[in-house]
Amino acid sequence: MESSLVKDNPLLLPLNKEKTIYDGFITVQVTHHKNDSPKLHCSWQLKHLLRGYEHIVKQVNSTQYTHNALSLSLQEVGLKSRPDCSSIPPPQYYSQLISEMETLGWDKLLSIDTEFRTLRLKAQDSSGRQHILTIKLKSKHPAEAPECSADLPVPLAITWTPQSTLEQLHNQFLLVLDSLTDFWDVLDEIDCKTWILEPEKPSRSDTMRRITIGNNVSIKVEVDPRHPKMLPECCLLGAEHVVTPLRNKLNANMHMWNPDSSVLHNLRDVLEIEFPSPATHEKSAFSIECGICYSYRLEAAIPDQVCNDLRCGQPFHQACLYEWLRALPSSRQSFSIVFGECPYCSKPITVKMSAQKS
C-alpha cells in the first residue's frame, strides 16, 4: 500500500522508517452534478483509509466545480496509513472520547498520545500520594474494554461494560488506591525513618525493603499489600555471629507483634534494637564496598556475602565471591555451595551459586 499511496499522492512524506505513518496532502478527485450528491473517486486504498470521513471530504468540496482537485491535510482528518487500516477509529470514537474527558475533567489528564489511544490519568489517594493510571483504548471504545495498568503491588482489576465511561474507570482506580493506603503508609514510614539498602529507588509496586541494622547487617522484610500491618516475612542478612542472636530474638518475641502498632515499631520491639535513621547516621557508614571489585553496587546487587570471622567481617558481592572461590585450586563444591577461603583473612567462607549459575 505504501508504494501505491506515494505514487498516487506525491505530496505525502513518510514520518517513520517503516513508512507506515505519513504527513502531507492527498489529492482527491470529487465529481458531481448540481442536482446529484457528491461522489468520491480515488484509489481503493485511499478510499478504505477515508472510510468514515467521506462527509468531511464532500463538505469541503461542496463549493468546488466538477473535476476540481481537493487537497486535504492528513492531520485535519487524523488519518494515518498503517498495515491494519481497519484499526483506524471512526469519527464517533473521537467525539465519544472528548465527551467522556469533559465529564471526567481535563485536569485529570496527564498526557495523551498523538493517536488518541493511550491516556495517562492522574489520581490522588487519601494520604495525598500521586498515582498514574495508563489507559489504552480500543478502536471500538466503549464497546471494547480498554487495557489498564498502574504502578501497584496487586493486579489491577477493573470492571468494564459497553456502558462504562472513563469517569467510572477513574473512580474504580480511586477505590483500589484507598484499599492500599495502609500498605503505602507502612512503607513510607520505613523509607522515611530507616536507611534502605534495597531497592535503590522503590516504586509503588515494590513490597520488599532491605533495612539497615548495622555494618554488614540488615533485615529484608516482605510486606503483604492486603494485610500490611501483620508480621511480614523477614530474612536477616549478615555475619552469622551477628545474625544468630537477632534471629533468636525474632523467633522468641514474634508473639508480641501488635497489628495496631506500626510495622517499624513492632520490628524494633521484636528485635530489641534501634534502627539507624537519616536523623542519626549517614548512609555512607553502611555502604561498604565489595572486598573484591571495590564497588558498592554491581548492577542491581550490593555486597551481601560477609566473612563470618569476628576480626574480618568483610562483605562481598555474591557474584564476585563465587568467581573468586571458583578460581581457587583449593576450593570445592557440594551441590550449589562453593567452599573456600576468604580473600582477606583466609578463614573458611562459603557462597551459594545464584540461580543463573546453578
From TrEMBL:
Q: Can you name a GO cellular component term?
A: Fanconi anaemia nuclear complex
Compartments in which it is found: Cytoplasm; Nucleus
Top-level EC class, please?
transferase
- Report the Pfam families cross-referenced here: FANCL_C (PF11793), FANCL_d1 (PF09765), FANCL_d2 (PF18890), FANCL_d3 (PF18891)
User: Which keywords does this chain's UniProt record carry?
Assistant: Cytoplasm, DNA damage, DNA repair, Metal-binding, Nucleus, Transferase, Ubl conjugation, Ubl conjugation pathway, Zinc, Zinc-finger
List the SMART domains.
Answer: FANCL_C (SM01197)
Which residue numbers delimit the RING-type domain?
A: 290-346
Q: What is this protein called?
A: E3 ubiquitin-protein ligase FANCL
